[in-house]
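Revision sheet: structure tokens.
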Amino acid sequence: MDPQLTTWPAPAKLNLFLHINRRRDDGYHDLQSIFQILDYGDTLTFQPTDDGNIDITSNYNEVPLQDNIIYKAAKLLQQHTGCKKGCAITLHKVLPTGGGLGGGSSDAATTLIALNYYWQLGLDNSELQELGLQLGADVPVFVKGYSAFAEGVGEQLQPIELEKNCYLVVNPGVQVSTGLVFNHPDLPRATPEITKEEYIFSQTQNDCEALVCILYPDIAKTLHRLLEYAPSRMTGTGACLFSRFNNEAEARKAAEFLPANSQYFIANGVNISPVHLKLQELLKK
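Predicted:
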């Protein structure tokens, strides 16, 4: 175990498409999606301790430091294993909350993976995924550690090899209520299922996009602008949007035409999560 202060990535994800197949009796929705992991996201620094306390600091004032998903992930791991160790965690947040990029879920997944390593708990990836699902439907894909074709509520994952595209990801500065979207009577809920092998970007869609664009005109306006330059789509329930390019130069050129003061970043799609590359690096030491 490395006793030194170590920083871990918590990467963003994109939903390259999002099909809602049906509403279940328990109120949740069966859906299909592809989670594309990016090489950009939050970072978390861990300093293991022996006092059992979980202390969190952050550059982001809106994170409640004793009632956030990072704290819940650490406490869940302690309770599940009976571990008496603690950790001081520092979050450097760059991903917007409520943007459809999975920032909080990714932070939780990185916490589970890192503390399993530091506390020497020996849990395998499947056990960590099961714990992650208790924290949120998007957590397992970040624990799993690769871009994936997802079904169920997003927890049934098949690895997928995706083309190496570059993405311009734009935050319109709007917070979308996921609950409002999934409970809205106008949300499509009967898109036919496809197989992983049938996936083609141009023949899929985000079933939440049309509704969200009606409810949040600023998102519609930004999406219309992006579509002038490249295939573009909303990720998750929004509000963030992405455009797909062959390389970074093309993405940067398109970014020049965004409205002034637009919040955006450019990232590459990756098939293996940076979190797992970090873990492999530490295990080799």
